[in-house]
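Researcher: We're reviewing a set of sequences before deciding which ones to prioritize for further study. For each one, I'd like a predicted 3D structure that I can look through quickly. This is GCN5 family N-acetyltransferase. If possible, include the structure in token form so it fits the rest of the review sheet.
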Amino acid sequence: MPLSPVTLSGRHVDLLPLSPDHHDGLVEAVKDGSLWELWYTKVATPEAMAGEIERRLGLLAGGAMLPFTVFDKAAQRIVGMTTYLNVDLAVPRVEIGATWYARGAQRTPLNTEAKLLLLSHAFDALECRVVEFRTHVLNQQSRRAIERLGASLDGILRQHMRMPDGTIRDTCVYSIIAQEWPAVRSHLNWLLEKPR
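Model: Here's the predicted structure for GCN5 family N-acetyltransferase, in token form for your review sheet.
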């Protein structure tokens, strides 16, 4: 299961290997909605974006993460980040997470297609047995989006993680297993094709 940088392309979105060259576009994207102000998630401030890019690329170099920049093809601009993380080569399994989108790109076909591309690569190219998603128990928007993909709630990790504001997060863990992937793929393709 080689975890090496790759470009994943669809009709609405390109997932590009994260690069320091994406800094300015990511700063503009995170400003759309002041995403760092959301208390229930961790998103870098504009001033901290260079450090966040460096951190993710350091984890890539160590084989612990595969980070992407999300590029909106219609708008011709960078709109966020997403990542494979919590990599377990023994299973193999990955988590899709550390994802954020500019407010203008939220609730659009872009997220559905991005998840379809990431799941396709994980199951078909990397031959994962399971793909996981995690979110704050109180992040209802994220939970609905994960459930809409067809992921099942595995459980809740209580008192799992400290948030930037000092509170302790309970984490919802969702997954899609390889046997479910064909049906999930059909569902995501249907969501992308149905009239809006």
